[in-house]
Amino acid sequence: MSIIRHSTLLSFGLLMTLFGVSADAKFVAGAATSNQSTIKAQSEILKESAKTKPAFQETSDAVKVTQNRVKVFFPNYSRNTTDLGHVEPVWRTTQRRDLSRFAIEQLIVGPTSNETRMGFMKPIQFRGSSNCGSDFTLSISSGVARIKFCKIIPSAGIGDDARVTSSIQATLKQFSTVKSVIILTKEGDCLGDMSGENLCLRRR
Do 105 and 126 contact (CB within 8 A), yes or no? Predict the structure, then answer.
């Protein structure tokens, strides 16, 4: 009887050992399967990220800064002409949107050294301080551009006035919103008006 009981216990022990090994094997297999699933899921995420990255790059590349070109008209005496108001255009490029103001600012800056060698000259010179905090004020309304200088513009006579007037008018009239131009001095008088009646303010 003791032998039978011992045999039974031994068999039961072997059975439990086999059961434990089987359970451990199933656990290991399950863990391996779970790990493989995790790796596969991570791989799929990386693939999706790789697919979406170029699309984002294309969107970023599509946002570009607009470059605008405007003409600035300077007197040019390399031409054989007796016209005191003769002006010719040169090009300037900017990212700004206030193109009319930018064009006048470039007119004040004057031609480049290369343009100067080509006969272009600076039409506007200033003297003294500003009474508005800038070189000029500019407004455009109903087709009329009104520019008022805030510094004194020295003039030697009709030739200087003609060069300033022609340069400003040609530069501003390149814009479709400008049909006529009023040019005022620091004191608010019409530039180059020898009559003293400020006739430019009556012409619209």
Answer: no
